[in-house]
Known about the structure:
mainly alpha; about 0% strand; Excitatory amino acid transporter
Amino acid sequence: xxxxxxMIGALLGLGTQMYSNALRKLPYMRHPWEHLLGMGLGAVxxxxxxKWDAQLQQDLxxxxxxxxxxxxxxxxxxxxx
Length: 81
């Protein structure tokens, strides 16, 4: 997944820079270092997004487990009342 996320991010950054140049009616490959910068930032962005999604899934699983345990205590452990 790391390679695919990196490639998607790089393509996103490259596409954004080329689209920006096209909107301004400039040559597509004007200032090639901007394309490299865009590809690097896009790759970092998508990789961080994947990490954030994995962390969010872990947090959600913990919250659901806590809620399930609380519901079981509430509704099935009625021996105390």
